[in-house]
What we know:
mainly alpha; two-stranded antiparallel sheet
Amino acid sequence: MNRSDIAPCGIDCINCELHQSSTRIDIQQMVAANMNKTVEEIKCKGCLDQNGCVIHEGCKTLECVQTKGVDYCFECSDFPCNYLIPAQDMADRLPHNMKVYNLCRIKQLGPEKFLQEALENRKRYFTGKMVLGSGPQI
């Protein structure tokens, strides 16, 4: 594990099925076929190590942190900004609404401890129920 296993926006790349450490060959094969690439071409080393995500180009958040000279969004004087606003679209399948929470945990714990926590809590995002006034019940 290293700092590049966390995207500047707070997404824990290490929990992605396309990350180089993932054993989800079935998903990697499906994505590679859909993109007309090999599995090796779509395996991700982490956003920071390869200057972006393997499944889309032109990440505005990555461009922003590079321009501002910070590693993570929480280090920016504009944090949180419009790049981190949660979205309803695909919220049941993608971890993008976790970015601000993750960034706050990274700031609190540091990248290394956050990654340990992220691995221990792998895929908790889509489990549990929200109880108003009590938060998520996992």
